[in-house]
Amino acid sequence: MKKLVLSLNVIYDSLDNISVFRLVAVFCLVSLILTFFILSFQFIWLTSI
Description:
Elements: H1 2-14, H2 17-48
Keywords: Membrane, Transmembrane, Transmembrane helix
Transmembrane segments: 20-46
């Protein structure tokens, strides 16, 4: 467990805070868009039946 935390700290330190923030922001944006598309597709599919 301690090894995992240490390796995570090393990975985090090697990355810039800005790049980490950007990665998280892009990931959130992509997941939001995917969720929106899936929901709208399901709605259209349900109403077309």
